[in-house]
Predict the 3D structure of the following.
Amino acid sequence: MILNKKSNGFSLIELLISLVILAISLLALASLMAMTTQNNSFGSHMTEATTLAQDQLENLRVTPWANVVTGADPLPIAGSTGIPYTRSWTVAQNADGTLRAVTITITWTDRTGHSIRLLSAIPQ
């Protein structure tokens, strides 16, 4: 019997090992995709919350000085992402009455609760 040592293809074992390696790497990529999707979603919510805070700050800046007071929106704001945002603001006047410090707080809940605060000052 003459043994031919020349190989023309892959053995079954080599093929199975390569499939296991491929499956492990694809599972790692799948978990990476899930994490990337979560981070993109959170970034979208942060952007929308920041825009809502900036909108309220601009509204307060064009409001007459006597009407710039602490308040909140009566109902949650439905965002474009489907998440309801609550917006409140506090106004504190400085000692000489020429400046008002405004803190706008936006809160929302997706998987967990989040909030951001925008701090600014409105001169008289």
